[in-house]
Design a protein that fits this description.
The chain is an all-alpha fold. The protein has helices at residues 5-14, 18-26, 39-49, 53-61, 65-74, 82-89, 95-105, 111-119, 124-140, 146-150, 153-159, 165-179, 183-196, 202-215, 218-239. α7 (95-105) packs across α9 and α9 (124-140) packs parallel to α12 (165-179). The protein starts with a helix and ends with a helix.
Length: 240
């Protein structure tokens, strides 16, 4: 039996922690309509509820911070329409809502299109969502052809000069995750970082320096070389 919206909201309110809300505000999370519940607790509740698209929509419409996080954990990505993605992203008001909900968005058929579209939008959390999607897809879409991820690099270079903190960190995140996906993408991401390095922008220089530090590091290079070697070995066995 599906849980009722009121029962779930009542349960969330019993878990409210004002001290946590104050701490979240210090980390840049919007304290308005926020209960201060840990994400791990919300994920456990989501596990108990299971997939429930109707409840997810009701939770989102409650406008309560944690209810919206919970909504993204129980929503069915196959029932998320393009219009819903647009409706939800316009209401992002905090980096954690943006990042967590993008985990849901990345499993929808619209993820690659929206990553590109949103990366050029002016609204802070819509633009951030574009780059968070890029980073999330680079990590979790294991079957994605490399060229699907490489297509994000021009957008990363284009927006690297945005000085807003929530944007520059997301651009950096996307660049690093793409560059850690494969040896081929690593080379392309490093080249993009070096292009960004020459932009007349403090944000761009920080993005480039931080990305190059990780992407050229011995641990990353060793892992990618081993991965490439293993793939070549598997291909040789198939072709023999």
């Amino acid at each position: 039996m599906s849980a009722s919206i009121q029962a779930v909201l009542d349960r969330l309110k019993t878990l409210s922690n004002p001290d946590n809300v104050a701490g979240m505000a210090r980390f840049g999370i919007n304290p308005q309509n926020t209960l201060g519940i840990y994400v791990a607790t919300l994920r456990q509740i989501a596990k108990e509820i299971g997939r429930d698209q109707t409840l997810a929509l009701e939770l989102w419409n409650s406008r309560i911070h944690e209810a919206r996080l919970l909504a993204s954990f129980i929503a069915d990505p196959h029932q998320m329409t393009e219009a819903l993605l647009e409706d939800w992203v316009k209401e992002f008001d905090s980096w954690d809502i943006c990042d967590q909900v993008c985990g849901l968005f990345a499993r929808t058929p619209y993820a690659y299109v929206k990553a590109q579209e949103w990366s050029s939008r002016p609204e802070t959390f819509v633009k951030r969502a574009g780059f968070v999607l890029m980073a999330t897809l680079a990590v979790h879409d294991k079957r994605a052809p490399y060229e699907h991820l490489a297509q994000f690099l021009p957008a990363i270079a284009r927006e690297a000069g945005d000085e807003r903190n929530f944007i520059r960190k997301a651009v950096n995140w996307a660049l690093r995750q793409i560059g850690k996906r494969s040896l081929t993408l690593n080379i392309q991401a490093i080249e993009t970082a070096r292009q960004i390095q020459h932009l007349d922008s403090k944000a761009a220089r920080w993005i480039a320096a931080d990305a190059l530090r990780e992407l050229t590091s011995a641990p990353v290079q060793t892992r990618l070389l081993a991965k490439a070697s293993s793939r070549q070995h598997q291909n040789s066995l198939i072709n023999d």
